[in-house]
């Protein structure tokens, strides 16, 4: 949370980067409904899970059956081909494991200098991403190569995993004095609407202003209650 606040604040006040900086918050639509089982197993296999474990996980995923009520009558049994049952305790764990595939791709791109993250101080390591469930935040140096490789990496992951970006709930904002052509190019490439900030992340306001006390009043009241 602190990393998210400090990085977004840095982007908001940054004036020294000629290309500009960008923060992107991606919302994934129905993350547990669309997981492709083969992708889950492939990631687990890549992480060197034993075959016995893979078989157990696949059995948990594929043994689910559904019935629905139609005009008061129970339908025939339906067998799903993807996704995880609602309320399944494995859901968040499997999603986190699958996210390792995205992390690996981002790390490779960073090591190859294809993607440049955001450093909030001169000697700080660059930050490119913060991932939590269906809210994922990305922080990039706004050059053409970084954006292009980032979009390709994200698209490849979503295609393989079955995830879909919810463009209506996703947001993007830029550092001050970012060239207009760079903004337009990035927005058209990512297809996410521009905003002035991220609002809340995990229930905590990210858009820190001068009156910090006022921002956290609601949270303090909830804690007191």
Automatic annotation (TrEMBL):
- What residues does the Reverse transcriptase domain cover? 1-206
InterPro entries membership: DNA/RNA_pol_sf (IPR043502), RT_dom (IPR000477)
Name the domain of life this protein comes from. Answer: Eukaryota
Protein name, UniProt field: Reverse transcriptase domain-containing protein
Q: Name one Pfam family in it.
A: RVT_1
């Amino acid at each position: 949370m602190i990393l998210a606040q400090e990085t977004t604040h840095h982007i908001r006040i940054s004036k020294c980067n000629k290309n500009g900086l960008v923060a992107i918050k991606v919302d994934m639509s129905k993350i547990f409904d669309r997981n492709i089982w083969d992708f889950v197993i492939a990631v687990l296999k890549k992480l060197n899970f034993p075959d016995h474990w893979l078989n157990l996980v696949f059995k948990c995923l594929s043994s689910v059956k559904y019935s629905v009520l139609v005009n008061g009558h129970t339908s025939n049994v339906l067998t799903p081909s993807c996704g995880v049952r609602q309320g399944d305790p494995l859901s968040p764990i499997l999603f986190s494991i699958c996210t390792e595939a995205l992390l690996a791709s981002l790390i490779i791109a960073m090591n190859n200098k294809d993607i440049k993250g955001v450093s909030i101080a001169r000697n700080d390591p660059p930050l490119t991403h913060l991932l939590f469930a269906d809210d994922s935040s990305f922080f990039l140096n706004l050059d053409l190569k970084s954006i292009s490789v980032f979009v390709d990496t994200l698209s490849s992951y979503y295609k393989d995993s079955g995830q879909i970006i919810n463009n209506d709930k996703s947001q993007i904002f830029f550092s001050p004095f970012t060239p207009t052509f760079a903004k337009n190019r990035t927005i058209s490439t990512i297809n996410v609407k521009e905003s002035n900030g991220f609002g809340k992340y995990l229930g905590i306001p990210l858009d820190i202003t001068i009156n910090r006390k006022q921002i956290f009043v609601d949270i303090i009241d909830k804690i007191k209650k």
